[in-house]
Design the sequence.
C-alpha cells in the first residue's frame, strides 16, 4: 500500500511552492540592494517583513484549522503546506533582517521563530519514524491490554513465588512492587527504568534456580517463564509510552514558543512603527 | 364463578388491554385473562427508565386505553390506573393451555384445569410467548427470576444464570464486574451464540469476570435458613452433582415459539416458513370461527397498531362496522392520484392492475401500502439512477417506464402497468444495475425491502414469482446479453438457486465442472494452491459469474471458489450452458474473452507467487494476496465502504475520533486503536456500510436506512432498544447520549482545550454509528481531519482490485465511478 504522506502530498506541490518563494526572495535580495545595505526598514525589508508576518499568522492559524472539523478541504494538505512554507519562512525572515542581529526584541522574535521551526523539524522526524516503530512494537495489542497482562502475570508470579525459597520470593515480590512503567516524563521519554527490578529479577532467577529440589524445579521453570514474559511485556509497554511521549513532547515547545513568537512579533512591529 | 362470556381476551398486553377497555366501555360481556401476575409483561421486562416509543407517529390512536411515548414506568403506571378506574374484568395468573371448538362456542382450558367458554376469543399474547420456566423442585423460589430489569441493581452477589443462549449470556455479561457470575449451559459449548457475544463471553472468562459449567442441568434448589447465601442450587455436571450456593438464579430458557401454540389451537398458516404469519380476515378473524388474533402475534409489532386493533376487533365482534384506523392514512396516500373513490375501491383496482399484489390478502395489501410511498413520476422523471444505492421495490400501478442499462440514452427495456421492478437490489443489496425513467405519467408504489421480505416469507406464490424473476435478471446482468424472453425463460427454468454460508466452497480445484455460477448476492474469492499454500487470486462481487474457465476449456476446475460472505448463486448446468452458447455466439465470445483475460492474469500472478517463494522472502505481491485474505476475513467482502488506517503514517493524534465526536453529538463512531492489523493496514472498529446491513434486520421503529450513496445511517426515531448493536457482527454500533457540542473559542481551538460538557450521561441513550458524514458537504471528517493522510476510506471492490493487482488505483471517496 503506497499512500502519499505529508511530504509528497499532491506530488510535492507545497515543496515546489516553498522552493519558488525562496528563489524569488533571494533574487529580489540580490537585485534590489539599498545604498545603505540590507536592513528591515528598506523597501524590500518591509516587503519581506509583511509577507513573513502574514505567513506567521497563517502558520498559527493551522492550530485552529486542524480542529475546525467542519471546514472544507483536507488537513493533510494544510499540514504539508505548514511544513514547507514554515521552512521557507526562516529564509524570508533572515533576508528580512538583512543579517542584522542584536540584543533586542527584534532578534528575540527571530530567535523564537527559529525555535518554533526547529521544534517543528523534530516533530517531522518523529512523525516519519515512530508510527512504523510503534506498530512493530505493539502489533494488535493496546497499551491497556499490555498493562492488564502484566497485572495478571504479577498475580500469578507472586502466587508461585510464595512456595519458593525466600530469596526467590523476595526478588519476585520486589519486581512486582518496584517496577515502574513510564513514571514521570523523563522516564517516559527515555523508555527504560534505571536498574529495572523486572530485568534484575530475571537475572537473579537464573542464578537462584540452581540449588532447588527436583519437585521445586518444575514450578521454578513455570515462574521463570512468567517472569521472562512479564519482562518483555514491561519493555513493550515502556517502548510504547516512549514513542507516544516523543510524538507529543515537541508540541510542548512548538506551541508555547509559537505563542511567544506572536507576542514578540507584535512587539517588534509596534516598536518599529513607534520609533520610526 | 361464571363459566361463559361473550368475549374472552387472552393476554393483557397493549392489544389485549385496549380490547378489554373498549369492551368495558361498550358494556360488553367480557373477561381478560393474563398468564402472569401483572399486565403488560413484555414492557415490564424492558430495562428501567427505557423510553417506550409511539410509532408510527402518523397513525392516530383510537382506543380508550391511553398511550403516548414516555418512560416505561409512566406507561405501566397509566395502564394500571386505567385497569383500576375502568374496573377491567381481569384475571391474573390464568394461563390458557388449550382452545378448542365446541358447538357454536370456543372452549378454553386454563392451567389449573378450570374450563371456560366464550362466543369470541381474542388472542393477543404477543410473540414473547410463554417464557420457559425452571421446572425443578424449588424452582418457584423467590430467588429465581426469569428476567433482568436493571443489572445495576445487583451488587456483590453470587448469581447463577441458567441458559447458554444470547439472552442468558447478555444478562450474565451485564452483571459481571460487580457480581460473581456463573453460567449453566446444557450444551457442551456455546455454538448457538452470536459471534460478538461469544467473543465477549470468552474474554470475560479469560479475565476471570465470570465462569461457566458446560453439559450441566439444574436439578433442585434448596432454601438456606442461615449463612451468606439464601439458596443452594444443585446441578448435575458430567462429574456428578455440584452444590452451588448463591444469592439469585436468573433463568433464560427462551420462549416457547408461538406458531406451534397457534397450530395446536387449529390456526392455519399459509407457508411452512417459520416467519410466516397466520391467515387472517380483514376483521382479524382466523380460520377458526370466533378466534381473533391481534397485535404482534398477527404480525403487527408496534404498540400503537396493537392498541388500535384491540379497539377494532371488539367493534367487529359487537357488530359495529368500523373503518380501521389506517383508512384515513390510506386515503391520504391515495389522494394524490385518485380522490374520487373509496379506499377499498382503489385497493381493488390496484389488485386488478398488478397480478403480484393480487396474491395478497386485503390486510397484507393495506399494510404494504401504508409502509410504502406512492410515486407519481411525470414523463422524463427518473425513478432511480444506475449505481444508486437503494433497496426499495416498485410496483407499476399505471403507466409505462423505460429501463436504461448502459451509458447510451437508448432504452434497453420497457415496463408497463402491472409490472414490478427493483428486485435485483432487493436481493443483492448492491447498486442499481440500471436507470428507470418514466415514459408516460405513472403511478408507482415504492415498498421498502423489509416489507417485501416479510411478504415473501408469508406468501408462497409471491416468493415463487420473485425467485423466477430474480434468476432471470441475474442471468441478464451477469452475462450481459439480452436474450429473448423465450430463451430467458428456458434458462431460468433450468437454473438452480443455491445458497452458501461464508467460507463454504462453491467448487473445488480439480473438481469436474458442473456449470456456470452467477453470483446473485454476496461475493466470492477465487484461490489456487500454489507451492503448497492457498493463494487468493481474485475477489468476485455480486453481478458477475465464476466457473467459465472449465466450461470453456472442458477441463476440471482450475481454482477453488469460496463464498467470502453468505452468498446466493444461480447455477446453470454445464450441458444447459453449452446449449445456450451454441445458440448464441455473442455469449460464446464474451465467455471466451473473459477466459483469455483470466488465464493471462492468473499466469502472471502465479509467476510472481512462485518467485516470492523461491527466494524465500515475502515480496509485495505475495503480501497482496495475503492482504486480500485478511480483508475478506475482516468482513470487507460484504462492505461497501471501509475505513482503513495506515499505521505506518498514523501519529496517534486521535483527530479522526475527535473530529467524528465533535461533528456527531459528542460520540465518536470509530475506535482508532482497536481492530486487526495486516501489513501496517488497520481495519479500525468503524462501520463498513454492509451490502445487507445486519443492523437493519430487527429495528422496531425502522430507523436504519441506506442513503442513495450507500451510507447506512440511523435517524431520529431510534428508540434505543439496542437490537442493532447486538446484531452488528463488527461491534461498530454503540449506545450513547447525543448532545449539541458547544462552539469552541478561537483560543480553545488553538491550544486544543476541550470545553466542559455538563453532565455527560444525562439524557436518553440512542444507537449511534458512522453515517459517513452524509450531511457534511465535503464528506467524511475522519479522513479530512487526519493531518498525515493515514486515514482512508475505500470501497472494497477498488481495494481488492488494487490488492490483487487488477486495477491501478484505490478509489478514494469515489461514489460515482463503479
Sequence:
Amino acid at each position: 500500500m503506497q499512500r502519499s504522506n505529508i511530504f509528497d502530498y499532491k506530488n510535492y506541490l507545497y515543496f515546489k511552492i516553498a522552493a519558488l518563494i525562496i528563489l524569488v526572495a533571494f533574487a529580489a535580495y540580490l537585485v534590489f540592494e539599498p545604498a545603505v545595505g540590507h536592513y528591515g526598514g528598506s523597501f524590500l525589508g518591509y516587503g519581506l517583513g509583511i509577507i513573513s508576518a502574514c505567513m506567521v499568522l497563517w502558520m498559527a492559524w493551522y492550530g485552529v484549522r486542524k480542529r475546525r472539523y467542519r471546514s472544507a478541504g483536507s488537513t493533510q494538505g494544510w499540514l504539508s503546506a505548514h511544513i514547507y512554507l514554515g521552512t521557507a519562512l526562516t529564509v524570508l525572515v533572515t533576508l528580512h533582517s538583512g543579517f542584522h542581529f542584536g540584543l533586542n526584541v527584534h532578534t528575540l522574535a527571530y530567535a523564537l521563530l527559529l525555535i518554533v521551526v526547529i521544534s517543528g523539524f523534530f516533530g517531522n522526524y518523529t512523525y516519519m519514524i515512530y508510527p512504523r516503530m510503534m506498530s512493530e512494537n505493539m502489533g494488535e495489542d493496546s497499551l491497556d491490554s499490555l498493562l492488564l497482562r502484566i497485572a495478571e502475570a504479577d498475580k500469578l508470579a507472586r502466587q508461585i513465588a510464595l512456595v519458593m525459597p525466600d530469596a526467590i520470593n523476595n526478588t519476585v515480590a520486589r519486581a512486582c512492587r518496584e517496577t515502574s512503567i513510564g513514571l514521570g516524563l523523563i522516564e517516559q521519554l527515555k523508555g527504560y527504568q534505571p536498574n529495572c527490578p523486572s530485568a534484575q529479577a530475571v537475572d537473579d532467577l537464573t542464578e537462584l534456580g540452581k540449588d532447588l529440589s527436583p519437585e521445586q524445579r518444575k514450578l521454578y521453570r513455570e515462574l521463570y517463564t512468567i517472569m521472562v514474559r512479564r519482562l518483555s511485556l514491561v519493555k513493550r509497554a515502556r517502548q510504547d509510552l516512549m514513542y507516544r511521549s516523543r510524538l507529543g513532547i515537541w508540541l510542548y515547545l512548538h506551541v508555547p514558543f509559537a505563542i511567544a513568537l506572536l507576542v514578540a512579533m507584535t512587539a517588534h512591529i509596534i516598536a518599529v512603527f513607534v520609533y520610526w | 364463578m361464571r363459566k361463559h362470556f361473550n368475549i374472552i381476551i387472552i393476554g393483557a398486553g397493549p392489544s389485549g388491554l385496549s380490547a378489554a377497555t373498549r369492551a368495558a366501555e361498550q358494556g360488553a360481556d367480557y373477561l381478560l385473562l393474563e398468564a402472569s401476575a401483572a399486565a403488560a409483561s413484555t414492557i415490564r421486562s424492558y430495562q428501567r427508565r427505557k423510553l417506550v416509543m409511539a410509532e408510527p407517529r402518523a397513525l392516530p390512536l383510537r382506543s380508550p386505553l391511553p398511550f403516548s411515548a414516555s418512560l416505561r414506568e409512566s406507561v405501566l403506571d397509566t395502564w394500571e390506573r386505567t385497569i383500576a378506574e375502568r374496573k377491567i374484568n381481569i384475571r391474573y395468573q390464568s394461563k390458557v393451555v388449550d382452545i378448542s371448538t365446541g358447538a357454536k362456542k370456543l372452549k378454553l382450558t386454563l392451567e389449573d384445569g378450570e374450563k371456560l367458554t366464550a362466543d369470541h376469543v381474542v388472542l393477543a399474547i404477543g410473540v414473547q410467548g410463554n417464557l420457559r420456566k425452571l421446572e425443578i423442585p424449588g424452582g418457584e423460589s423467590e430467588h429465581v427470576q426469569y428476567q433482568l430489569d436493571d443489572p445495576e441493581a445487583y451488587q456483590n452477589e453470587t448469581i447463577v444464570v441458567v441458559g447458554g443462549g444470547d439472552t442468558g449470556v447478555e444478562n450474565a455479561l451485564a452483571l459481571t464486574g460487580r457480581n460473581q457470575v456463573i453460567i449453566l449451559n446444557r450444551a457442551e459449548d456455546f455454538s448457538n451464540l452470536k459471534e460478538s457475544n461469544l467473543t465477549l463471553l470468552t474474554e470475560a472468562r479469560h479475565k476471570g469476570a465470570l465462569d461457566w459449567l458446560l453439559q450441566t442441568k439444574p436439578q433442585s434448589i434448596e432454601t438456606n435458613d442461615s449463612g451468606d447465601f439464601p439458596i443452594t442450587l444443585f446441578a448435575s455436571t458430567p462429574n456428578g452433582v455440584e452444590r452451588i450456593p448463591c444469592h439469585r438464579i436468573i433463568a433464560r430458557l427462551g420462549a416457547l415459539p408461538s406458531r406451534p401454540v397457534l397450530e395446536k389451537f387449529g390456526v392455519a398458516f399459509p407457508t411452512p416458513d417459520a416467519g410466516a404469519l397466520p391467515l387472517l380476515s380483514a376483521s382479524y378473524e382466523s380460520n377458526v370461527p370466533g378466534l381473533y388474533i391481534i397485535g404482534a402475534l398477527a404480525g403487527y409489532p408496534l404498540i400503537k397498531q396493537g392498541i388500535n386493533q384491540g379497539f377494532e376487533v371488539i367493534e367487529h365482534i359487537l357488530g359495529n362496522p368500523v373503518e380501521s384506523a389506517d383508512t384515513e392514512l390510506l386515503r391520504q396516500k391515495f389522494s394524490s392520484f385518485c380522490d374520487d373513490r373509496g379506499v377499498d375501491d382503489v385497493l381493488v383496482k390496484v389488485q386488478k392492475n398488478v397480478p403480484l399484489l393480487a396474491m395478497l390478502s386485503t390486510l397484507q395489501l393495506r399494510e404494504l401500502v401504508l409502509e410504502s410511498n406512492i410515486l407519481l413520476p411525470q414523463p422524463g422523471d427518473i425513478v432511480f439512477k444506475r449505481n444508486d444505492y437503494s433497496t426499495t421495490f416498485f410496483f407499476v400501478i399505471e403507466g409505462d417506464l423505460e429501463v436504461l442499462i448502459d451509458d447510451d440514452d437508448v432504452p434497453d427495456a420497457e415496463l408497463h402497468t402491472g409490472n414490478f421492478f427493483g428486485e435485483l437490489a432487493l436481493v443483492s443489496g448492491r447498486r442499481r444495475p440500471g436507470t428507470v425513467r418514466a415514459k408516460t405519467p405513472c403511478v408507482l408504489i415504492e415498498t421498502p425491502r423489509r416489507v417485501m421480505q416479510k411478504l415473501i416469507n408469508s406468501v408462497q406464490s409471491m416468493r415463487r414469482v420473485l425467485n423466477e424473476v430474480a434468476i432471470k435478471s441475474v442471468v441478464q446482468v451477469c452475462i450481459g446479453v439480452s436474450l429473448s424472453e423465450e430463451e430467458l425463460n428456458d434458462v431460468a427454468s433450468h437454473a438452480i438457486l443455491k445458497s452458501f454460508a461464508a467460507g463454504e466452497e462453491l467448487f473445488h480445484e480439480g473438481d469436474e465442472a458442473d456449470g456456470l455460477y452467477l453470483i446473485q448476492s454476496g461475493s466470492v474469492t477465487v484461490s489456487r494452491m500454489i507451492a503448497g499454500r492457498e493463494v487468493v487470486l481474485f475477489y468476485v462481487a455480486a453481478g458477475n459469474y465464476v466457473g467459465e474457465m472449465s466450461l470453456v476449456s472442458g477441463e476440471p476446475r482450475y481454482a477453488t471458489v469460496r463464498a467470502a460472505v453468505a452468498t446466493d448463486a444461480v447455477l446453470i448446468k454445464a450441458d444447459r450452458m453449452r446449449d445456450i452458447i451454441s445458440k448464441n455466439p455473442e455469449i460464446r465470445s464474451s465467455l471466451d474473452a473473459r477466459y483469455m483475460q483470466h488465464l493471462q492474469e492468473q499466469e502472471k500472478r502465479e509467476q510472481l507467487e512462485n518467485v516470492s517463494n523461491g527466494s524465500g522472502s515475502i515480496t509485495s505481491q505475495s503480501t497482496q494476496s495475503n492482504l486480500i485474505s485478511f480483508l475478506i476475513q475482516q468482513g470487507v467482502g460484504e462492505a461497501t465502504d471501509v475505513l482503513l488506517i495506515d499505521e505506518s503514517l498514523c501519529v496517534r493524534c486521535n483527530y479522526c475520533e475527535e473530529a467524528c465526536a465533535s461533528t456527531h453529538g459528542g460520540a465518536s463512531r470509530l475506535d482508532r486503536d482497536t481492530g486487526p492489523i495486516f501489513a501496517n493496514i488497520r481495519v479500525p472498529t468503524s462501520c463498513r456500510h454492509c451490502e445487507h446491513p445486519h443492523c437493519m434486520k430487527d429495528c422496531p421503529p425502522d430507523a436504519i436506512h441506506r442513503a442513495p450513496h450507500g451510507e447506512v445511517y440511523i435517524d431520529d426515531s431510534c428508540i434505543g432498544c439496542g437490537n442493532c448493536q447486538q446484531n452488528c457482527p463488527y461491534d461498530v454500533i454503540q449506545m450513547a447520549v447525543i448532545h449539541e457540542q458547544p462552539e469552541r473559542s478561537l483560543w480553545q481551538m488553538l491550544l486544543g482545550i476541550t470545553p466542559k460538557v455538563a453532565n455527560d450521561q444525562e439524557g436518553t441513550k440512542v444507537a449511534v454509528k458512522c453515517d459517513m458524514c452524509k450531511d457534511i458537504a465535503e464528506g467524511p471528517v475522519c479522513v479530512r481531519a487526519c493531518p498525515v493522510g493515514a486515514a482512508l476510506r475505500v470501497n472494497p471492490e477498488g481495494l481488492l482490485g488494487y490488492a490483487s493487482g487488477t486495477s491501478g488505483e484505490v478509489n478514494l471517496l469515489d461514489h460515482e465511478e463503479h
User: Anything to note?
Assistant: The interface with chain B takes residues 1, 3-6, 9, 60, 63-64, 66-70, 72-76, 78-79, 126-127, 130-132, 134-135, 139-140, 142, 148, 244, 247, 255 of chain A (CB under 8 Å). Chain A is about 75% helix and 0% strand. The mean pLDDT of chain A is 90.
